[in-house]
Amino acid sequence: MKVLALAHQYVPVRNAGAETMLHGMLSALARAGHDVHVSLSMQDGPAYVHDGINVWPRQGPKAYHAHHLPADLLIGHLENTQPAAFLGHLNNVPVVLVHHNTFDGSKNALHLHGSRADLVVVNSQWMADDLTQWHRDQGLTQPRTIIMRPLVRRSDYEVEGPRDRVTLVNLKRRAAGGAGAMLSKGGETFWAVAARMPKTRFLGVVGSYGVQAEGDLPNVEIVTHVPSDRMAEQVYARTRVLLMPSSYESWGRAATEATAAGIPVVASPTPGLMENLGDAGIFVDWQDVDGYIRALRNLARPAVYAAACRRAVARAGEHERMRAAEEQLWIAEAERLGSMVGVR
Length: 344
Known about the structure:
Elements: E1 2-7, H1 17-31, E2 35-44, E3 48-50, E4 53-58, E5 73-77, H2 81-91, E6 95-99, H3 104-108, E7 119-122, H4 125-138, E8 145-147, E9 165-169, H5 187-196, E10 202-205, E11 220-223, H6 231-234, E12 239-244, H7 253-260, E13 265-267, H8 271-277, E14 281-283, H9 289-299, H10 302-338
Parallel strand pairs: 1-2, 1-5, 2-4, 5-6, 6-7, 7-8, 9-10, 9-12, 10-11, 12-13, 13-14
Antiparallel strand pairs: 3-4
Helix pairs in contact: 5-9, 7-10
């Protein structure tokens, strides 16, 4: 089966949660023996192969996704949701749309005139429930929807290191200009907490997108964007506690990575992070600087920290078991759709 995914950028050039989730889905298909291609609409450069996936960056001012057809299955996400849905309709090819957030614009894109969506993949149960409720409210028929949480293997994050830093991955702050721009990863809170805890060492990792909160404190080290395959050794090996004071997360892959490394996570109680972390999470409102300081001081107690680490490891094991079943369902669904080319 030939699979064609339409994306704007791809790993390892861009390693945000949406791209790593898509890569997990595609690498599962590649391991199952399928011919997988990714056509990019924003990223320039030469073609390359990554984990058995053929990646085709944009050549010139526009993306030419149609040049990679015919295919047995089309996959689209983010800004390429609509192109994938339209190309699938025009070429009578089944379409999978990866649904990354709960914004109305993303939901409306599932039902555009002259498009098709045969399967929707979401990253969490709460997003699946939200999508079901939205379809009920709108009086629309929901496409078949399955859950596939981001792929994170504990074996990839079992690294040794000093683990003496309080870390935030992506220092994105709120910025004017649309609903998405107003969302924060908590960069403002990170700097405020660090200023109040001068004897604690902090690590900030520049994100692959968004306006980054800036500061200059002697107890804070800032490193540039780190490729996903180097996060374990360059970030988590140095991290004692991960902060995730996000105003919105549909899932929060960094939290899953931290639990895989046995690192406690202090996070905002967004629906995605609460589902992601479960009993392993320590939850504080994203703007509650005092709350984050209290949580960090509590985790400075050896017995409290050891218990939090055990909960993180246990949660990582639960994720691996859930993901194994979800991956098999995803492969089966993709193969079922791929056998239906020409059938509407």
